[in-house]
Design goal:
- By secondary structure, the protein is an alpha/beta fold.
- Helix content is about 35%, strand content about 20%.
- It folds into two domains: about 120 residues, Rossmann fold (3-Layer(aba) Sandwich); about 220 residues, Glycerate kinase, domain 2.
- Helix 1 crosses helix 13.
- The longest helix has 22 residues.
Length: about 375
C-alpha cells in the first residue's frame, strides 16, 4: 500500500494549508483504492503559520484585545499548540500592514505595541515557549513598541516617558526595565523568518521595505537614521551589534529588541515549523511527497515552503510533486532543485476571482490527476 504525505503551504486569499491538503486528499482518495494519506500543513513563518501549527498539533486559537499599528483597539488571534505550553504568534495579526487602509500606512507612526500585547497574553495563559512569525508588518520601529507593551520604559532627554514608533526612535535617551515583565527571563522565543536583510544600509529595513509600507524618500531617510540611532543605543546596553546582522531587517527590525533583552533567537521560518510538526519523520515514512502553494516561480527556491519540503524529501530520495495556483517564470528550473513534477491547478483560461472561488474543487481535481500518475508507479 502506498503512503502519501501531503504538505502544502496555504493558497493565499483562498485556502489554508490544511484546507489545501484536505482537497488534494479528497481527490486522491476518489481515484486510488489502496492508499495511506498523512496531512501535514506547513508554512514559512509568515501568513498561515498559526493555522498550520495548530492544525498540525491539535492546538487551539485564542483571541485577545490589543492595539493595532496606529494604537486602535482590535481583536487579534494567536495559537496555543497541542502541548498547551507553546504559543504561536503572527505579528501581522496585531501589527500587520493589512490592518491599515492604504492611506493610513505610515511607518513613522506605526508601532509593534500590539505584538507585545499578544506575547503578554500568551504569558498570562502560562505559555513557556513562544514561536513568533514576523511577516507582513506595517512597522519599522525596531521592535521598540513591543518592548513597551512588555513593560519597558522609553525616556527622552528630559526623563519623560513616551511610546516609541518609527518616527521617534532618535528621541530615546534612556531605557528603564524596572517594570519589564519578569516572566520573560524564563521564556524561550523562536523568531521565524526567511528574510536575510540587515537592519540598516541599502538593503536594510527602511530602504527596502519602507516604500512598501507607505514611506516616501524623505521618510525612508528619517527611518534609516532612527534605526541607526536605536541600534547604537541597544549596543550600549547589550554590547551586541545589530546594524549588519543577517535577518535583522525583517519586519522593520522587530527582532533586534527581542534579541537584545530576551532569550530569543532567529531561525529559518520553514525549518522551525518543520521541526515543530515533525515533518522530516513524516517524509521518511512516505512513498510520495506532495506540496504546493499559490504561486511557484523562480522565487520559490529562495526559502519558500514548497522548496523546503522538496529539499527535505530529496534528502531521503522521495519523489516530490508540487501543485500551484499559478506557475510563473523560472518554474522549470525547479526540476533541477528537487521537484519531480509541478502541476498548475487551473483548468484552462480563468480570471483570478473565479480561480480563488473554485480553489477547493480545483485542488481536488489536481489530486485526482496526481493519483492517476501514481497508478503508473512500478509496484502500485
Amino acid at each position: 500500500m502506498i503512503k502519501i504525505l501531503i504538505a502544502p503551504d496555504s493558497f493565499k486569499h483562498s485556502l489554508s494549508s490544511l484546507d489545501a491538503a484536505d482537497s488534494l486528499s479528497t481527490g486522491i482518495q476518489k481515484t486510488l483504492e489502496e492508499v495511506i494519506i498523512c496531512l501535514s500543513p506547513v508554512a514559512d513563518g509568515g501568513e498561515g503559520t498559526v493555522q498550520a501549527l495548530i492544525d498540525a498539533t491539535d492546538g487551539i486559537l485564542e483571541k485577545a484585545r490589543v492595539h493595532d499599528p496606529l494604537m486602535r483597539m482590535i481583536t487579534a488571534s494567536y495559537g496555543i499548540l497541542g502541548d498547551k505550553k507553546t504559543a504561536v504568534i503572527e505579528m501581522a495579526s496585531a501589527s500587520g500592514i493589512e490592518l491599515l487602509k492604504p492611506e493610513e500606512r505610515d511607518p513613522l507612526k506605526t508601532t509593534t505595541y500590539g505584538t507585545g500585547e499578544l506575547i503578554r497574553h500568551a504569558l498570562d495563559n502560562e505559555c513557556s515557549r513562544i514561536i513568533l512569525g514576523i511577516g507582513g508588518s506595517a512597522t519599522i520601529d525596531g521592535g521598540a513598541g513591543l518592548l513597551a507593551a512588555l513593560g519597558a520604559l522609553f525616556l527622552d532627554q528630559n526623563d519623560k516617558a513616551f511610546l516609541p514608533c518609527g518616527g521617534n526612535l532618535d528621541q530615546i535617551h534612556t531605557l528603564n526595565f524596572e517594570a519589564f515583565d519578569p516572566r520573560l527571563k524564563d521564556i524561550r522565543i523562536r523568531i521565524g523568518s526567511d528574510v536575510d536583510n540587515p537592519l540598516t544600509g541599502e538593503k536594510g529595513a527602511a530602504a527596502v521595505y519602507g516604500p512598501q509600507k507607505g514611506a516616501g524618500p524623505q521618510e525612508v531617510k528619517k527611518l534609516e537614521e532612527n534605526l541607526c540611532s536605536y541600534a547604537d543605543l541597544l549596543e550600549t546596553y547589550t554590547g551586541k551589534h545589530f546594524h549588519s546582522m543577517p535577518g535583522a531587517g525583517a519586519a522593520g527590525g522587530l527582532a533586534i529588541s527581542l534579541l537584545a533583552f530576551t532569550n530569543a533567537r532567529m531561525e529559518s521560518g520553514f525549518t522551525l515549523i518543520a521541526e515543530e510538526t515533525g515533518l522530516e519523520d513524516k517524509i521518511k515514512e512516505a512513498d510520495v511527497v506532495i506540496t504546493g502553494e499559490g504561486k511557484i516561480d523562480e522565487q520559490t527556491a529562495y526559502g519558500k515552503t514548497a522548496f523546503g519540503v522538496a529539499q527535505l524529501a530529496k534528502k531521503y530520495n522521495k519523489p516530490v510533486i508540487a501543485v500551484a495556483g499559478t506557475l510563473g517564470d523560472g518554474s522549470e528550473a525547479l526540476y533541477e532543485k528537487g521537484f519531480d513534477l509541478i502541476l498548475p491547478v487551473t483548468e484552462g483560461p480563468t480570471d483570478l476571482e473565479t480561480a480563488l472561488r473554485k480553489a477547493p474543487k480545483l485542488l481536488e481535481n489536481a489530486g485526482m490527476r496526481i493519483a492517476r500518475i501514481i497508478k503508473l508507479f512500478p509496484g502500485y
